[in-house]
């Protein structure tokens, strides 16, 4: 079946690199409508076996209520040329080269449910491989290219009738009828598929062993149990037996087998709970997993690939950016200095000395494909999001300052668009989510909020306070059991620093944030009256009621212990405990479908502020989960934030 025609789809790299004309550059203060345009998102970067082509999936901007779309693109390294290979009005994603490089497979829902399609290298006729009767998920080519192993979920359970009660018996997530992902394999030549593993398993990741005799899987046995956890198994095609390979402390992900088939690499948390993620290797000969990066890098490992049997290439979080490392089997790590960490490399692949990676962008640039030859500076080779360069965005600065106990804190500072040195301006502190998280120096939603505010005359500061990732395990543990303690003091030390620098007007200070950032904002209004305006988004204000209503309390239990046995601690670190001290005008924002921090948290805050006569406004967004999705809500939220600060700080 013909899915697309290649004619007319080839786009020369010279055209793309010249940029698309989006009209005249924006002048004057930005508006939310100008800055909330969706971006093209690049993922699944894959070198061809000969290194001459790079496949990627590019998700196109989605305009509600239109369905999401993404397409497969190819970058040819010699001569440099970028072209689109698929063009259906649906999703085309997850490209994977056949071992011989003659074709590739990808997932698409062009005919309804997600199915696996095949396409010749360089384009042509796309052919559906799977039968279309059941949806297909993550897949992997066999080493000889004759088979593809893939996951397919169980059929959906019957929905309960509208007025029937929902009966919960297995936990708080209400998923009493989970759709388990089953393991299948399909013959590429005959299209005959058969199910392999049976039993009560759910599957997540899949890799073939290099000898083709079996598969490596991350799997969860009896997933309905609250004690179930992800483990790594070997599945033999001969006897259909699942053999336990590794049981990491934290959930493993990104399993990858070494080229010689003797070792398995994976990423997992160092200890139980919300902690650092390290790179491990597990010998198939047995023995415990070996942590390669806990001391050599001591930063969250984001992704990795095998370069050869003795070396891996990995990215790790470094402050506001990400860093490439070459990692050896003895744990020695060498930093790749030809790629700037502020380019925020994300998904990547390597062929010999070349590295192709997606940059998550900076405060004033967006997501693009970059290429490094391993010798000189990396080069941007796509222009999917050049629209960002047409905006009058502020270049970020990254000051460091000492907090109350001498701990060094790094922050990202956006000064007003037309800032004059020596001029004091209103300052807004934006706190990140988490607490196990960080601000990154890219064009994310809150980075756009910062750019919007900077264009309206505000200095905006994004501090990576203690507890943030990107600064080592010890730093990330400093806020454990002490929310509202040292982390809040780090924020206030940043305020003092910017006042001393002559940038911030001490009489015009605002604070804001989402999730943990919203919690820090709620905490701030109960601890100081230095802020004249606050924005509290999707916060936790009452730790006890949060732990009883959120969808997954595991990280909170890890941080604070069993809630019912630590009531005094939970009360001490809850903003609601000190709400009678609040006087700061506060804007509260929350979505009705938030199961991470349920909307009851904001309702408690609003009721308490109203009780004490504090000026406040509560915007409730229908259908929105913890992370907003609808464009009109994203724009409305940004408009409300701007109006709130303008009405109280100007």
Word description of this protein:
The protein is 16% helix and 32% strand. It folds into two domains: 13-156 and 177-388, TolB, C-terminal domain (Neuraminidase, 6 Propeller), CATH 2.120.10; 394-649, Rossmann fold (3-Layer(aba) Sandwich), CATH 3.40.50. Strand 11 (181-187) and strand 12 form a beta hairpin. It is an alpha+beta fold. The relative contact order is 0.08. Mean pLDDT is 89; it is low at 1-25. It is globular, with a radius of gyration of 26 Å. It starts with 12 loop residues before the first helix and ends with a helix. The strands form eight sheets. It has an eight-stranded mixed beta sheet with strand order 29-30-32-31-33-34-35-36, with helices on both faces.
How many distinct helices? 11
| Gross geometry | globular
**In CATH terms, what is the fold-level topology of the largest domain?**
Neuraminidase
**What's the gyration radius in Å?**
26 Å
CATH hierarchy class name of the largest domain:
Mainly Beta
Percentage of helical residues?
10-25%
Widest sheet, order of strands: 29-30-32-31-33-34-35-36
Calculate the mean pLDDT score and round it: 89
Helices and strands: which structural class? alpha+beta
The CATH superfamily title of the largest domain: TolB, C-terminal domain
CATH architecture name of the largest domain:
6 Propeller
Question: Describe the biggest sheet?
Answer: 8 strands, mixed
Strand content: 25-35%
Report low-confidence residues grouped into runs of 5 or more: 1-25
Whole-number total of structural domains: 2
Total strands: 36
């Amino acid at each position: 079946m013909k899915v697309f025609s290649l004619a007319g789809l080839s786009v020369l790299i010279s055209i793309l690199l010249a940029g698309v004309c989006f009209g005249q550059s924006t002048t004057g203060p930005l508006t939310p409508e100008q800055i909330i345009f969706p971006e093209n998102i690049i993922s699944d970067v894959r070198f061809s076996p000969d290194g001459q082509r790079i496949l990627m999936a590019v998700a196109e901007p989605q305009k509600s209520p239109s369905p999401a779309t993404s397409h497969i693109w190819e970058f040819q390294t010699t001569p440099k040329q970028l072209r689109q290979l698929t063009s259906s009005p649906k999703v085309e994603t997850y490209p994977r080269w056949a071992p011989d490089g003659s074709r590739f497979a990808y997932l698409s829902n062009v005919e309804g449910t997600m199915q696996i399609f095949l396409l010749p290298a360089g384009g042509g006729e796309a052919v559906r491989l799977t039968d279309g009767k059941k949806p297909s998920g993550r897949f992997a080519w066999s080493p000889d290219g004759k088979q593809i192993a893939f996951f397919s979920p169980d059929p959906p359970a019957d929905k309960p009738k509208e007025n029937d009660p929902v009966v919960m018996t297995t936990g708080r997530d209400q998923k009493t009828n989970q759709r388990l992902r089953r393991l299948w394999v399909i013959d590429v030549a005959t299209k005959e598929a058969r199910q392999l593993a049976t039993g009560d398993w759910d599957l997540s990741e899949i890799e073939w062993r290099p000898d083709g005799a079996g598969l490596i899987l991350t799997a969860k046995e009896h997933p309905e149990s609250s004690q179930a956890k992800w483990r790594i198994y070997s599945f033999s095609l001969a006897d259909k037996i699942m053999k336990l390979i590794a049981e990491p402390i934290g959930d493993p992900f990104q399993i990858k087998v070494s080229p010689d088939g003797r070792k398995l690499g994976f990423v997992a948390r160092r200890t139980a709970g919300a902690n650092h993620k390290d790179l491990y290797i597990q010998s198939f000969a047995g023995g415990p997993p070996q942590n390669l990066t806990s001391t050599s890098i001591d930063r969250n490992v984001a992704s990795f690939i095998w370069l050869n049997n003795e070396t891996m290439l990995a990215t790790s979080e470094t402050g506001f950016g990400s860093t490439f490392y070459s990692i050896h089997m003895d744990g020695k790590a060498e930093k790749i200095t030809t790629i700037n960490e502020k380019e925020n490399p994300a998904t990547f692949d390597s062929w010999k000395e070349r590295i192709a990676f997606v940059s998550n962008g900076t405060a004033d640039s967006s997501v693009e494909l970059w290429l490094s030859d391993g010798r000189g500076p990396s080069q941007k080779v796509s222009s999917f999001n050049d629209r960002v360069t047409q905006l009058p965005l502020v270049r970020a600065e990254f000051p460091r300052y000492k907090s109350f106990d001498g701990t060094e804190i790094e922050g990202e500072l956006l000064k007003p668009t037309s800032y004059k040195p020596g001029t004091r301006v209103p300052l807004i502190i934006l706190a990140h989510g988490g607490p196990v998280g960080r601000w990154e120096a890219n064009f994310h939603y809150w980075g756009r909020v910062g750019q919007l505010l900077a264009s309206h005359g505000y200095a905006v500061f994004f501090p990576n306070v203690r507890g943030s990732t990107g600064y080592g395990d010890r730093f990330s543990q400093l806020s454990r059991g002490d929310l509202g303690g040292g982390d809040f003091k780090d924020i206030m030390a940043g305020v003092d620093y910017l006042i001393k620098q002559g940038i911030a007007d001490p009489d015009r200070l605002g604070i804001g944030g989402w999730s943990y950032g919203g919690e820090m904002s709620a905490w701030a209004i109960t601890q100081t009256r230095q802020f004249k305006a606050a924005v509290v988004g999707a916060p936790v204000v009452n730790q006890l009621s949060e732990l009883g209503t959120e969808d997954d309390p595991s990280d909170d239990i890890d941080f604070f212990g069993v809630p019912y046995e630590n009531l005094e601690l939970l009360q001490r670190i809850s903003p609601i405990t000190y709400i009678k001290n609040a006087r700061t005008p506060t804007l509260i924002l929350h979505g009705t479908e938030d199961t991470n921090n349920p909307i009851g948290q904001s309702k408690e805050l609003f009721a308490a502020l109203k009780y004490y006569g504090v000026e406040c406004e509560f915007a409730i967004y229908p259908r929105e989960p913890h992370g907003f999705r609808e464009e009109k809500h994203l724009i409305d939220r940004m408009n409300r934030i701007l109006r709130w600060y303008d009405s109280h700080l100007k």
